[in-house]
Amino acid sequence: MVYLAKKGNEVIHHTSKQAMLEMDGITKADMEISDEEFEKAGCFARIIDGKIVVGKTKAELKAAANADRIEFLKAQLAETDYIAAKIAEGSATAADYAEKIAQRKAWRKEISELESA
């Protein structure tokens, strides 16, 4: 069990109520959660609007997922940059890579949508 309590603008956490009292002078925990829940949340707790929030908010999780997706899409674009060079040098035509060019356009569109979300 993990015991969490507000102390000023910080969240204090201990696995022992006694330790919380002895180390921080806090007599009562504001929240109790299992060790597993706390670990799943990355051992991350803070105060938002006067309440203890464990883990990331839905908005933060969505932003992180969007950032991961953007990173993946940009890697896909980087892996296919050679197409532009081949076309520019005349060793290939846009028709040769029409499908990949369309995919790159879709990736750029998705990146723009994720960045504005």
- Give the low-pLDDT segments: none
How would you sum up the major sheet? Answer: 3 strands, antiparallel
Quote the distance from N terminus to C terminus.
37 Å
Structural class: alpha+beta
Rounded average pLDDT? 94
Strand arrangement within the widest β-sheet reads 2-1-3
Please trace the helix and strand order, writing H or E for each element: EEHEHEEHHH
**Shape, per Cα inertia axes:** rod-shaped
Write down how many β-strands occur, each being a DSSP E stretch of 2 or more residues: 5
Description:
The chain has a three-stranded antiparallel beta sheet. Strands 4-5 form a two-stranded antiparallel ribbon. Helix 3 (58-79) runs antiparallel to helix 5. Strand 1 and strand 2 form a beta hairpin. By secondary structure, the protein is α+β, with helices and mostly antiparallel strands. The chain has helices at 17-24, 35-40, 58-79, 82-89, 98-116; strands spanning 2-7, 10-14, 31-33, 45-48, 51-54. The longest helix is centred in the middle third of the chain and has 22 residues, at 58-79. The protein starts with a strand and ends with a helix. 54% of the residues lie in helices and 19% in strands.
